[in-house]
Amino acid sequence: MALETTYIQEKLSSKFGNKVLNFEMQRDIFSFEATSDIIHEVIKTLKEDESLNFHFLTDLAGIHFPDNDDEHQFSVVYQLHNWIENVRIRVRTYLPENPEIQTITDLFLCSNWMEREAWDFYGINFIGHPQLKRILNMDEMVSHPMRKEFPLEDSGRTDKDDRFFGRTVANK
Amino acid sequence: MSVESELLLTPEHRFAKIIEQTRNEDGSELSILNLGPTHPATHGIFQNILLMDGERIVDAEPTIGYIHRAFEKIAENRPFYQINVLTDRMNYCSSPINNMAWWMTVEKLLNIEVPKRAQYLRVIVMELARITDHLICNSILGVDTGAYTGFLYVFQFREKVYEIYEEICGARLTTNMGRIGGFEREWSEEAFRKLNVFLEEFPVAWKEFENLFERNRIFIDRTVDVGPISAEKAMQYGFTGPNLRAAGIDYDVRKAAPYSSYDDFEFDVPVGKSGDTYDRFCVRNAEVWESLRIIRQALDKLPEGPIHADVPDYYLPPKEDVYTNMEALIYHFKIVMGEVPVPIDQIYHAVEGGNGELGFYLISDGSRTPYRLKMRRPCYIYYQAYTEMIKGGMLSDAIVILSSLNVIAGELDA
C-alpha cells in the first residue's frame, strides 16, 4: 500500500505532539514544520522508521526571512525521498537570529557539504558538524552573502551610473 | 597584522603536522601533493591536497569554490526568463538539460501545460545532451588511462550535436534554449536532417568506441575494482544518476517521476553491480544506447501542433513579432517590466541530468524574481565522496576515479 500522507502525519504527531505542525500539501510534496529542538529526532524517525523509510536526503537549503518576527528569521528546509514508495517529503524548521541547529551528518553523509554551504551562505551554525567551515567562498570572508541584507552588487561601485542600467535603490 | 599576511606567514596545512609526527619504518616520510587546482587531469578548477605515502594516498582534502559565480544569489535578483542563461554554464557538457529543467520548474510554478510537440522536442534535445555528456565523460576516462584515440574519434560527434543545437537555437555550448512554455521557434528542416544523419552515423562509431575499451586489457586493469562504492554508501552520499546506478540501484528520475512525456517512451535503466570505475563507464555506455532509442521513438511519434504554450503573459514573443505586431510588443513590454503576476508557492522540480538528479527548489513570493532558488546540483552532492573513494589507492587511480565520476567544475561550484 502506498504511503499515505495522513499516515505520515499521524505517525509524527503521535510521537512529537504539537512540535510538528502545519502539515500541508505544497503542490506535489507533503510538507510540515518541526521545531528546531527536535529536528534531528524527526529526521531520524523519518529515516529509520520502517513504515516511513525516507532513506534519501535530496536536498538541504537555508533561507533568510528578514521580514519575519524574531523567532522566524531563518529557515532550514530538508527534502527527503522514499524511493521504494516514491514519495517525497519536505520538512522545514525556523530559527531566530544567530541561528543554531543540530547537525544531521550522523544520519546522512551527504548532509556534510550541504550544511557547510548553509553555514557559508547564511551563517547557520550546525552544532556537532565535524568540519563546519566555508566551502564555496573564501575562508577570510566575514559576511554570509546569501542573507537578504547583502545586495547583489557592491553598492560602493562608482564606475557606472545606475540610472543607465535601469537600477533603482529598490531592485539593486 | 592583516588576516591575509597572517595566512601568508603560516602556510602549513593540517597534513604538515601529520607528516612531522609520522615516520615509516624505513625512514621515509609522508608527503603532500597538490592535485590541482589547475591540473589537466582534474578537468576543471578544483584542488585536492593529498597526503601521500610514496604513490599511495593516505588522506585527501578537497577544496572547491574556485569558479563560484553565486548562481543562487544572482538568480534571486533576476526575473525568471533571465535565469536561463545562468543555467547553461553549470554542466556545460549538457546545457540543454539544465535549460529545460529550469523552464519546467517555472512552468510547474505557473501551471503551464506545454504542448505535446514541444515536450517531445524537449525530450529529443535532452537526450542529445545526455549523449554528449556521457560521450565526453567516457572518452576523457579513456584519455586518463592513456588512450587518446577513442576521444578524438567520438569527439567529432559532439561537434555534430553542437551543429544540431546551432540549427535549433543559434548557439553551440551555452545554448540558452527554449522559452517558458516551449521553444522560441519551430525547428528547421536542416535540424531534423542533421539529427537523422547523426542517428545513422553515431551508433557505428559508438559501437567501435565500446569495443575499443570494454574488453581492453589495459583499460580493465586500470578500472575494475578501482574506486568501488557500495549501494548503501552511494545512497548515504546522495549519489544519483549513472554513478548510483553503477552501484546497482535503478533509480532514475525519468522513471520515478516522468516529466515532459517520458512515460510515452520505452527505455531501460542500465545498472551495474560493484559500483567501480568500470561499471560507471559501462553504465554510461549503455545509457547512450537508451538515449538513442528514446530519440528514435520521439522522432517517429513526433506530433504536429504548436511549438509553445499559448501563455502570452509569460512567453516572450519572438523578435520578428515584437517588431511587427502590436500585441506582441505589448506582451513583450509587460513581461520585461515585470507586470504579470506570479503565484506565491513553493516548488521542487527534478530532472535526470547527465550526472544525476538535477533539482530546483523555488520559493516564489509573488514578485518577478524568485525569493529563494536552491539548486540541487548532482556534482556538488557526490563529490564529497571522492575523498573516501581514493583513500588507500594509488595516485593514478585517483585520476580515473575523478574522471569516471564526471565532476564538472561549473556545476560543482555553481
Automatic annotation (TrEMBL), chain A:
Presence of the UniProt keyword Translocase in the record: yes
Similarity comment text for this entry: Belongs to the complex I 30 kDa subunit family.
Keyword terms: NAD, Quinone, Translocase, Transport
Domain NADH:ubiquinone oxidoreductase 30kDa subunit as annotated: residue spans: 35-154
Job description of the protein: NDH-1 shuttles electrons from NADH, via FMN and iron-sulfur (Fe-S) centers, to quinones in the respiratory chain.
PROSITE patterns noted in UniProt: COMPLEX1_30K (PS00542)
Positions of region (Disordered): 150-172
UniProt enzyme class: translocase
One MF annotation (Gene Ontology) recorded for this entry: quinone binding
Ranges annotated as biased composition (Basic and acidic residues): 150-165
PANTHER family: NADH DEHYDROGENASE [UBIQUINONE] IRON-SULFUR PROTEIN 3, MITOCHONDRIAL, NADH DEHYDROGENASE UBIQUINONE IRON-SULFUR PROTEIN 3
EC number(s) given by UniProt: 7.1.1.-
A family per Pfam: Complex1_30kDa
Superkingdom of source: Bacteria
Keyword Cell inner membrane: no
SUPFAM superfamilies per record: Nqo5-like (SSF143243)
Native source species: Flavobacterium capsici
Protein name, entry field: NADH-quinone oxidoreductase
Reaction(s) catalysed (UniProt annotation): a quinone + NADH + 5 H(+)(in) = a quinol + NAD(+) + 4 H(+)(out)
Automatic annotation (TrEMBL), chain B:
Molecular function terms from GO: NAD binding; NADH dehydrogenase (quinone) (non-electrogenic) activity; quinone binding
InterPro entries: NADH_Q_OxRdtase_suD, NADH_UbQ_OxRdtase_49kDa_CS, NDH1_su_D/H, NiFe-Hase_large
Membrane-related topology note: Peripheral membrane protein
Record keywords: Cell membrane, Membrane, NAD, Quinone, Translocase, Transport
EC annotation from Swiss-Prot or TrEMBL: 7.1.1.-
Top-tier EC class: translocase
Pfam families in the cross-refs: Complex1_49kDa
Catalyses which reaction(s): a quinone + NADH + 5 H(+)(in) = a quinol + NAD(+) + 4 H(+)(out)
Primary subcellular site in the record, as a coarse category: membrane
Listed Gene3D superfamilies: Cytochrome-c3 Hydrogenase, chain B
NADH-quinone oxidoreductase subunit D domain residues: 144-413
Localisation: Cell membrane
GO cellular component terms, A-Z: plasma membrane
PROSITE patterns: COMPLEX1_49K (PS00535)
Family (UniProt): Belongs to the complex I 49 kDa subunit family.
Quaternary structure note: NDH-1 is composed of 14 different subunits. Subunits NuoB, C, D, E, F, and G constitute the peripheral sector of the complex.
Main function: NDH-1 shuttles electrons from NADH, via FMN and iron-sulfur (Fe-S) centers, to quinones in the respiratory chain. The immediate electron acceptor for the enzyme in this species is believed to be ubiquinone. Couples the redox reaction to proton translocation (for every two electrons transferred, four hydrogen ions are translocated across the cytoplasmic membrane), and thus conserves the redox energy in a proton gradient.
NCBIfam families according to UniProt: NuoD, PRK06075.1
Record HAMAP family: NDH1_NuoD (MF_01358)
Protein name: NADH-quinone oxidoreductase subunit D
